[in-house]
Batch of 3 targets.
Target 1
Amino acid sequence: MRFLVADILGIYKVMVSPFLAPACRFEPTCSEYARQALEKHGVIRGSWMALKRILRCQPFCEGGHDPVQ
């Protein structure tokens, strides 16, 4: 399951991301954060962490350096 989610992220980074303007307020980017969270914490917790991160990526959040813990 982890590999399936990682493959979906990889497809997004190759097929979709190049056509979007860089807009992530965080370092690492949200997609890279998701990849790292999945690798470190597994599918369920990593997906939850990635979802929370994506929800924070909005104009009212300052952003900045936010590594996977």
Note: The radius of gyration is 12 Å.
Target 2
Amino acid sequence: MRSFVLLFLLATIVSADVYTAKTKTGKYCIVLEANITGTVTYNKKESGTSLQSYDFTVPHTAKSHGNCAAENGTQVLNIDFTPEVNATGIWHISLIFDIDSNVGKEHSFKLQKYYLYANFSDDTIFNSTEPLKKFKQEGKVFEWNASGGNTAFMCSTNTLGFTENAKLTFKNLKVVAEEELDRPYFANGTKYELCFNDSKTSDVVPIVVGACLTGLVIAVLIAYLIGRQRAKRQGYASV
């Protein structure tokens, strides 16, 4: 029975996929761990000007590569994948990192730009008016930054917005850039800077726990006083 429960718990754990970019010497300058889903829009040939929405999941078979010394000192992580098993066209995510000039610390990084390249050339799936489409980021990038050695950015859920209502959602996100790591994973000693939503949750939890403990202490104290008062009354009655 215990073995069955253990296997069930292990089966319910969703492990995040890992994507990396390596230097020429074999070090890892970017490591990203996440489960990625997305939504894009496109025009079908028979639908006129109305946009069609398409949801997808980046599969475990996705491939990653990059450039640790790109233009102007930036670092690039590329993720290539097919959104469906039978799809023939390769899709492409590009994340461009740079040193966080606002911090000025060694090993600081921030996400500077990002792009999504969709391949709609498979007519059996999309029948799109555009076989290839580039989605650009919409607005400035908030968060996705950290500073200090062995420090990564972490967020339970984070969404990057694109033009034409497209988006990428990263769940269980951990990312570090501007580093030279020997292995493509986050060690036990890694420090994390949380996204805003997660930091709010981490602040609320101690308050809630403290309030619950305070309530419990008050309830115990009231029960004690009531019991003591009853004991006194019983003592008077027996006399």
Note: Residues 11 and 73 are 42 Å apart (CA to CA).
Target 3
Amino acid sequence: MKISACVLLLVSVAVFSGLTAVSQGGEPSVAQGKDASPSDIAASSQDISRWVEQLDSDQFDQRERAQAKLTAAGSPAMPEIAAAARTASLESSTRAINILLTWSEGNDRRLAVAALEQLASMKNRPIESARAAEVLAEVRELAALEAVVSLGGSYQVNPQLRGVISFVPTVNYQIIIGSKWRGGLESLQLLESIPHTAVVSFYAPPLDDDALDCLQNLPQLGRVELYGTRFSKEAIEELPRKLPNVKEIDIRPSAAFLGIRGDGGQNAHVVDVVPDSAAAKGGIRKEDVITHIAGKEVKDFAALTAMISQYQPGETVELTIVRRGGDQELQTMELPVTLAQWGPTSNDTLPELRKMNLERR
């Protein structure tokens, strides 16, 4: 079982520490204990082979030190640790399994994926193998999310989908591919490693029609947003046929972003203002009612959305608002607002990776 080459190549590589202290015995030093984190030491292939042999030493302290050093060595020790876990003595294989378990729960996603792949393929360890297979897809998903961000995309956790009610707690993602995307067409394959994608948003990305093919293998996809894209009319018209399970396809001619939320009533009533958005910077407040844009009447929130999408990010428009003052009197105000662009940054924290929850022996 192997992760796709795309994910392996794009997930951030752990940066190994530089010079390390050398102990009196002539070996790279490492913090004592089994919980030393990978990359704490730089180890040669000879060091790694020696430490693997010491996992079966007659001396308990030497076995403990060898396990700690191998744990800290990280990726360079993977081949020999995987081999020891499969074929070595009971003592050595158990310690090798424990090293793989520790790696699988670490912060280095790439190392965690590699460790889980090894654990999942071990026929001589059916309990560990079954549990690793469960967790592996989750780690791959988190690794792919991090890769999307590294390529200029972003994500939000648990986006709200209109008309969709779920009674089963789950984590879903909105994947945002905007104007700063530098992964090209090929890197959109990362989305296939994020099966909990519920929304895909293309906000003026530097992509053509072929990018829409990445939407076809997302089992939980419920909404697609196409704002200011250069996709052809023909490609967009094909989407309902290609994506029969998608509930919403929202198409706007531009990616201009105001930054307010409405209540869907009979006017453009502002129920919330997104912090640091164009609306917030322009002086719009919660409970305002937007009545006109550039002198044109705004009938409701849907009309407001359509009118904003006729402008481009960076343009300044004059909004007429009605605000209730401190004396409860209504005040009419003209506010110039410079529109921003859709495409929030990834300010959500990734869910904590589930642990293997297997007893170390």
Note: The domain at 151-161+169-252 is CATH 3.80.10.10 (Leucine-rich repeat, LRR (right-handed beta-alpha superhelix)).
